Amino acid sequence: MVILMSGLDYSQAPIELREQLSFTKAQVGALVGRIRAQNLRILGCALISTCNRTELYLSCAPESDLKPDEILCGAVGLEYAPFAGAFVTRRGSAAARHLMEVAGGLKSQIWGEDQIISQVKAAIGIAREQGAADPVLETLFRNAVAAGKEIKTKVRLTGVATSAAARAVDVLRRDMGKLDGKRALVIGNGEMGRLSASLLREAGCSVTVTLRTYRHGETVVPAGCGVVPYDDRFSAMEGMDLVLSATTSPHYTVTAEQMSMLKRRPSWVVDLSMPRDVDAGVGAIPGITLYNVDTLGAEQHRGEIPVEVLDILDDYMGRFYEWHNYRKCLPAIENLKEAITERVLTYPELEDGLEQEELVELTVSKAVDLLTGGLKEHFTPEDLERVVGKIKVHTAVRSRERENCHGEKRILFSAIC
Predict the structure, then answer these.
(1) pLDDT tens sequence across 335-353
(2) Which site among 76, 314, 323, 386 is 20 to 30 Å from 349 CA-CA?
């Protein structure tokens, strides 16, 4: 099997392109299920979709000429041409290494960000639920997530903010002078919204969070924050110093027209969503400064990857390819078992037939499994097939010798009689 991936991210694709290929979890599930079902050459399919990147991973036959970027655009009904220069396609070990670097936060706009590990884990989980994941992608993503966790645990990549929400608070504190006593409205009460509200509250803001009235079940509101219905968000903006929006809405939560109608408009607006929550026209309104995920991360410092991180990546790449090589060897291992069994059964002769034959097959199977399991990093399918060939040659020679011997015995017996 071979791994193929195509992705576009903040480094080559502007936000206007990325938001066209940004998907909710439900959309990701529908897409991977459809892509996997519509192409029999695709054995596994997983899709990562975040604010910074959209990446499609495929597991295919080695000779596959599939193009993941064109497949993704076709699946959502978008013309490929506008995206051609933004996609980067990788194959084999380059694709596997890239995923591990992504999971470690090494490819993020905010270097070393915390949320990407859970996003990578969620991507393979969604693929599994849709029946789109295969053993190759399952093992690759599991190793990538493990590598990311080990990097987070053992190595401090950076001393600055490691989430978009934390970066936003840092930028606001820098540009507003201070946040103590400022009034903030946070639109959205999902993971990013709650994190943003908590960080603003810790920075000294008086924070109000919007809640949607149709949501059921337990609603978590960060400690110390007020609440307002989502539908009343514009009246709640009056007199606010800043507004931060972080939802999964497919539509704008804040439009330029609605914002311009306010009498006491906020001076600072932050959009942490993809696709964007805030109409870009809001930034053209006099007195308002608008940030989005690209402008917030533009000044992020990227250091050299520490040697400890490179060692971790190499370790998990080795684990994945050790497993991958062993999997490729499985057909040859079965051939080896059959060849050895045939050789054992050829000489010496068995007296009781079936029971002993079954015992030999079981013994050979267990012995070969133990041998190949302990040496799986040292052989290839080609090595095993060469062994099989030699065993078959010896078996054939021994069979001919036995036939000749039996023939001579029959002739001698006839002569005596």
Answers:
(1) 656 666 665 555 555 455 4
(2) 386
